[in-house]
Amino acid sequence: MASATGVAVGLQRWSSAQSAHNVHRLGRFVVAEQQRLAARVQKEQRLEPLSLRDGSLWQVRRRPTLLKAQVEEEESAVAPENGVATRVDNGGFVEAVSAPIESESSWLPALPHVLTAAMANFMFGYHIGVMNGPLESIARELKFEGDTIMEGFVVSIFIVGAFLGSVGGGVFADKLGRRRTFQLDAIPLVLGAALSATAQSANVMILGRFLVGIGIGVNTGLVPMYISEVAPTKFRGALGSMCQIGTCVGIISALLIGLPAETDPHWWRTMLWLATIPGVALIVGMQFTAESPRWLGKMGRWDEAQNIIEKLWGKGEVDVAMEELRAANSSEGEDEDIAWSELIQAPYFKVAAIGSALFALQQFAGINGVLYFSSLTFKDAGITNGVAASAAVGVANLVGAVVALSLMDNQGRRKLLMGSYGGMAISMALLVAALGMPDNPDVAHLLSVGGTLLYVFTFALGAGPVTALIIPELCTTRLRSKTMAVSLCTHWVCNFGIGLFFLELVQRIGLQAVYTTFGVVSLLAIAFANSYIIETKGRSLEEIEMLMNGESSK
């Protein structure tokens, strides 16, 4: 990592960096002499944002109370310690030539809190998978077999509930805190699953699915937001990948638990009863997890925020993290929320637009269409066992998510996102090629199965996890929950629209043309990420906020 060459004195516009590595997190630099002088300055003095000449960001305290001997000379150099040198000029500023040191932070203290939150994503995946296999048995027992409209409504009402939940979840998260919102949100998840399990009519089943949808809608925004706020900066990407992994494990669990449904027509009730267990576990588990230090700081509960930072991130992170939080809150205002209408105004509109665009591109790149036709693709290739086909897709999804976990804090979000969409575009090319080979079925089947698995793998590598993680990273604390709400509303609307019109498009223009469109959207997503997404790897949320408010390279 390149070291900074100095600190320009005074307020300046943030300069453009030439490399992602040129932007250092404030907490990675220690200036030995600056620490000694810090005891002599007034604690209430404000932080002033400065920019390094090479584009890195730094915040230092103005020090007008320095000893006379320390400012007599125009510029007195202090010997470097641990690769860090400081100079004090006669304006009362400390200038630093800095180098990184090792951080004390570890991922282990935050892991139990992250895993508890990820249970909500497990429920998301489980409820996606739980209706796939036994839907015919449910329709037969509840007496709407053959009614395709009712069958579609039982499935789609879930999305309607999720849309409403994504809107309301942000309000509760801001007012009650992240932990209490998790606990409150688990109530419709448990109640909805119980109603569905005991349903004796289609109407009760619809009500249960609607309640589950509300809970899922809240969680899809709350989980990545919470994880991004409690995870140490160094490991935020890897821990944030637990969202996607939780969803994958939930889908596979529903598939495995649903195996007896092939011989037992009433097994679906057991499957839905089992869905109440992680909901109850979430309520209990959140009683012992940490509240978001960002939310606590926003509410002015600084002592609690400091204790949690020390517990989850390590003592070495406390001072700098608290300075960052206080600086961010002093500019935003403690306990002050922006109105919904402000999301369409500068500077908030930019982040809201990026979030909505990312989710729209994710959906229009065709993930639901590929999954919809995956069973038919495998069947045409001679794999008639639906469970085997679903298992293959589920494993590809899970493997991609695990690989993303290992790469997220290494390669960075932006590279993973662009590489993911690149792989999805290649996958679509394989599927289009397979559809154009009616006279060569063996090659066509190989390309179609390979293209499907490659698509699911590359989606799980970036387009899935990065989209959910990077949006809360780009937002300020005041803006985060509302931006996630708007972005997820876009997600659910696009999801519903594709589910509604996908088959109609296939009938009108053909599957080959639809897949070609999905490939083009994937290429557009690469261009969008290249133009509008900054790299968030290794940067605190407060530093990312500074970058979004200024001029910065990727």
Automatic annotation (TrEMBL):
Q: Record's InterPro entries?
A: MFS_dom, MFS_sugar_transport-like, MFS_Sugar_Transporters, MFS_trans_sf, Sugar/inositol_transpt, Sugar_transporter_CS
User: Which residues does the UniProt record annotate as the domain Major facilitator superfamily (MFS) profile?
Assistant: 113-537
Topology of the protein relative to the lipid bilayer: Multi-pass membrane protein
> What GO molecular function terms would the record report?
carbohydrate:proton symporter activity
Which controlled-vocabulary keywords does the entry list? Answer: Cell membrane, Membrane, Sugar transport, Transmembrane, Transmembrane helix, Transport
- TM segment ranges: 149-172, 206-227, 239-259, 271-290, 386-407, 419-437, 443-471, 483-503, 509-529
The identity of this protein, by name, is: Major facilitator superfamily (MFS) profile domain-containing protein
Q: What NCBIfam families does the record point to?
A: SP
Q: Which PANTHER family match?
A: OS09G0452300 PROTEIN, PLASTIDIC GLUCOSE TRANSPORTER 4
Q: Which family does it belong to?
A: Belongs to the major facilitator superfamily. Sugar transporter (TC 2.A.1.1) family.
Which species is this record about? Ceratodon purpureus
Q: Which GO terms describe its cellular component?
A: plasma membrane
